[in-house]
Specification:
binds adenosine monophosphate; alpha+beta; binds glycine; about 425 residues
Length: about 425
């Protein structure tokens, strides 16, 4: 079968790597892809938001199955467009991707169906938001309603900060139209865990847990980023936590979406916080996490196409989803200066060191082939170096060893990815 993957980051490289292992697949295309993906798939120069061009391409090449990795096209309705043309596609329709596309929608859904989450209010008038803040407890969390590249969340310690935050989001439109509406929510404390799941509209199957490191610098210092590395499974995701989430969060979310006439098909990413009062939902995403996919997918035993087709066909109950009984750690190699300002275009050396190394992966995020045919840095996050190990500690040692196999000017990484594991 011929598969098209839509997206261009480390997540899509991890998806393409799993698809390449599938016994059903003869040919993979990726739009637009990147230099690493290009080693497994034919990259096509079509942007993820160019739906008409993607549909025309899928028809011309007689693509059997399309997988959408990124949030923007999903929230924008790419699945509806493909389905309307009779093309088979993995991902939620627009009316279900709103679970990620609107924080106000997801908070209202959780409130209506008693799914544990932080208390909140929604606003579309900055004056009302400012009034509300006067009597609210600090710290407090402000969230722009729509997609804001994972950056539309402000944690404010004082009333002054919070007022300035409302102005930034709703008046200055720092996150664009994502800030036309906003959510103000209670600040929670606890450890964060990411849980990815496959969903077919009614059945949900949970993947192995993961834990992200969002801050740029060691010791969780510095600015928030798209993620500087992560590990799977999380030792804090205990059987007790799993039981609780199965009872109150996972199936409840899938049933709520179905009851609203928005059956969810695809991947739901549950961003959870393990609070003193039990696990609560921080956020939902309508796709694999990045870099979560880079530690979870390499550990999945199933043929990814079997699982994804079962989702689209509404037969996920027939799949026995299985993960290896080991661990994986991913360390992101970034360009120094990320997430603010950084240089790019530097040659990446040593990529061949990963050839034939079982259990080691070099996922490309921001890379490209230059005019001379060399692979060069082309973004803030450049590579995701993943390694497996029998234990998290071993996986961590392996991943850090493998970070030394590649080199480029401006190479930057955190040195404490998964360090909390040692303290667990
Ligand atoms: P979100 O995009 O909603 O996951 O928020 C991004 C990050 O902000 C989360 O990963 C948390 O670290 C933090 N955050 C979001 N909501 C809250 C909350 N209610 N309390 C504390 N931290 C939060
Ligand atoms: N790593 C967090 C995300 O993909 O949203």
């Amino acid at each position: 079968m011929k598969v098209l993957v839509v997206g261009s980051g480390g997540r899509e490289h991890a998806i393409v790597t799993s698809v390449a292992k599938s016994s059903h697949v003869d040919k993979i295309y990726c739009a637009p892809g990147n230099a690493g993906i290009g080693q497994l798939a034919e990259c096509v120069n079509i942007g993820a938001m160019e739906f008409d061009k993607l549909v025309a391409f899928a028809k011309e090449k007689e693509i059997d199955f399309t997988i959408v990795g990124m949030d923007d096209p999903l929230v924008g309705g790419i699945v509806d467009v493909f389905e309307a043309e009779g093309l088979k596609v993995f991902g939620p329709r627009k009316n279900a991707a709103i679970l990620e596309g609107s924080k106000a929608f997801s908070k209202d859904l959780m409130k209506k169906y008693n799914i544990p989450t932080a208390g909140y209010e929604t606003f579309d008038d900055p004056k009302k938001a400012l009034e509300y803040l006067e009597t609210a407890k600090m710290p407090i969390v402000l969230k722009a309603d729509g997609l804001a590249l994972g950056k539309g969340v402000l944690i404010c310690n004082t009333l002054e900060e919070a007022k300035a935050g409302v102005k930034e989001i709703m008046e200055d439109k720092k996150f664009g139209s994502a800030g036309n509406h906003m959510v103000i929510e209670e600040f929670m404390t606890g450890r964060e865990v990411s849980v990815l799941s496959f969903v077919d509209g009614k059945t949900i199957k949970i993947m192995s847990s993961a834990q992200d490191h969002k801050r740029a610098k060691d010791g969780d210092q510095g600015l928030n980023t798209g993620g500087m590395g992560n590990f799977s499974p999380s030792p804090f995701y205990t059987k007790e936590v799993d039981d609780f989430c199965k009872k109150y969060i996972y199936q409840a979310t899938v049933d709520a979406m179905a009851a609203e006439g928005r059956p969810f098909v695809g991947v739901i990413f549950f961003g959870l916080m393990l609070t003193e009062d039990g696990p609560k939902v921080l956020e939902y995403n309508a796709r694999f996490g990045d870099p979560e996919a880079q530690v979870v997918l390499p550990r999945m035993k199933n043929d990814i196409i079997d699982v994804m087709e079962a989702c689209v066909d509404g037969k996920l109950d027939t799949i026995d989803l299985q993960f290896e009984d080991n661990a994986a750690v991913c360390v992101v190699l970034a360009s120094d200066g990320y997430p603010v300002a950084y240089e790019k275009g530097f040659e990446i050396k040593g990529l061949e060191n990963f050839d034939g190394k079982e259990g080691y992966y070099c996922f490309h995020a921001g890379t490209k082939l230059n005019e001379e045919g060399k692979i060069v840095t082309n973004g803030g996050r450049v590579l995701g170096i993943t390694a497996k190990g029998a234990t998290l500690k071993e996986a961590r040692a392996n991943a850090y060893k493998a970070t030394e196999w590649v080199d480029f000017d401006n190479k930057y990484m955190r040195h404490d990815i998964g360090k909390s594991i040692d303290e667990a």
